[in-house]
Design goal:
InterPro entries: MFS (IPR011701), MFS_DHA3_Transporter (IPR053160), MFS_trans_sf (IPR036259). This protein is mainly alpha-helical. It has two domains: about 190 residues, Up-down Bundle (Growth Hormone, Chain: A); about 190 residues, Growth Hormone, Chain: A. The protein has 16 helices and no strands. Helix 3 packs antiparallel against helix 15, helix 11 packs parallel to helix 13 and helix 12 runs parallel beside helix 14. The longest helix has about 35 residues. The N and C termini lie far apart (about 70 Å).
């Protein structure tokens, strides 16, 4: 009888762990959802030009790049609960700076806080739920996480558009409320659900920084031996470079049309998320997931980017953007599958970290260059450059794979 009660209590605890995990993920990602459609428009409303806007957006990427591995080491030192709460505090600081800030320095500080928050959150909640549930349960909850986040991103994106029409800075106020709830739950609920686990080996921050150098050194050696893996990393990096101007400039381009308010931009965000889910669904039906398939899909994605530069009505441009997003729904999981398939098991973690670093660098450089080109010439110019680049690289790789 006592054993059954123990099993029942454990089952209830595990259920609460899963529910808390899902809720915290939704609260953290709420910022991305509610600001996704209108963030760039907010920066434009504060007088920033295309170059300054891209620089602000890119700042969070470089912050994540430098902090991700040291943040993981700090999580080992202070524990999952404190790390989770710290990510919430940084996210709250981000929203406060955007809500009250009115200049470039405040926005850059906000983006640095955002990058640090994402670095501290990255993998922390995943590790926590794995440690405090069974392996089979954690696999199930990860599937639920993706579904919950998809629904949350759609609803919060629509909400963001409606709020922005009422009060543009209000999107950060609602995101701040979400951050405060995130901090409260992490401090009040997470400790009560934890179980005593085996003591883990802790890394110092200096060891983590040394680990970055080791990752780069080992990965370069591995890629020099395995040219196929290096080609995939380079291809994915150029892909990130080519598509970044669409991510940044889609909302300003739609918003320039007459009678298009923030609510309509929010609806467009919803359609974009649905288009990407549609691309995911198409890939699920495709059995062959090869580098050739990635090259072919990327080529057509490049054509869609190039085509955006020549669409001059709201509906034609919106349909073009949705087509682009549908291609990305195929490309994102496909490029991960292709890379993971080619890497040998013993080198996977190291090379994947190196891959993330290189892609982040290309993405950052693209935002700076494309922002400057948009300021000098036009947004359409950046789309033409990105499209032509992706078409060229896609066709080149297409030919190599056929040979």
């Amino acid at each position: 009888m006592e054993e059954e009660r123990g099993k029942e209590a454990e089952a209830i605890r595990c259920k609460k762990v899963r529910s808390t995990f899902l809720l915290l993920n939704c609260l953290f990602e709420f910022y991305a959802g509610i600001t996704g459609a209108t963030f760039v428009l907010f920066l434009y409303s504060k007088g920033l030009d295309a170059m300054e806007t891209n620089f602000v957006v890119a700042t969070s990427l470089i912050a994540v790049f430098f902090m991700e591995i040291p943040a993981g080491a700090m999580a080992d030192q202070i524990g999952y609960v404190k790390t989770t709460a710290l990510s919430g505090v940084l996210m709250a600081a981000t929203n406060v700076l955007f809500f009250f800030g009115n200049g470039m320095m405040a926005f850059l500080a906000a983006q640095i806080c955002l990058g640090f928050a994402c670095a501290f959150e990255s993998g922390t909640l995943d590790a926590w739920v794995i440690d405090h549930t069974s392996v089979s349960e954690s696999k199930t909850v990860f599937l639920k996480k993706n579904k919950c986040l998809s629904i949350m991103m759609i609803l919060s994106g629509l909400l963001g558009g409606v709020i922005a029409d009422w009060f543009l800075e209000g999107i950060f106020l609602f995101a701040l409320i979400s951050s405060v709830c995130y901090i409260g739950i992490s401090l009040a609920v997470m400790p009560k659900l934890e179980i005593i686990s085996t003591k883990k080996e802790k890394r110092s921050v200096s060891e983590a920084i040394a680990g970055i150098r080791l990752i780069i050194k080992d990965s370069v050696k591995y890629c020099m031996k395995d040219k196929k893996v290096w080609n995939i990393i380079l291809f994915n990096s150029i892909l990130a470079f080519a598509i970044s101007p669409v991510f940044v400039f889609w909302s300003p381009m739609l918003h320039r049309f007459e009678h298009v308010n923030y609510t309509i931009i929010g609806f467009a965000w919803v359609l974009i998320r649905v288009a990407m889910l549609g691309g995911n669904a198409v890939l699920e039906r495709v059995k062959r997931r090869s580098f050739l398939a990635l090259a072919i899909t990327s080529t057509f994605c490049g054509i869609s980017i190039l085509g955006l530069a020549f669409l001059h009505t709201f509906w034609s441009l919106l349909i073009g953007i949705l087509l682009f997003e549908a291609f990305l729904g195929v490309i994102y999981p496909l490029k991960e599958t292709v890379l993971n398939t080619e890497i040998s098991h013993g080198n996977r973690a190291t090379v994947l970290s190196f891959h993330s670093m290189i892609v982040s660098i290309f993405n950052y450089i693209s935002m700076l260059i494309m922002g400057k080109l948009a300021a000098w010439f036009s947004i359409e110019t950046t789309w033409m450059i990105g499209g032509i680049l992706l078409i060229s690289v896609g066709i080149l790789q297409w030919g190599r794979e056929i040979k």
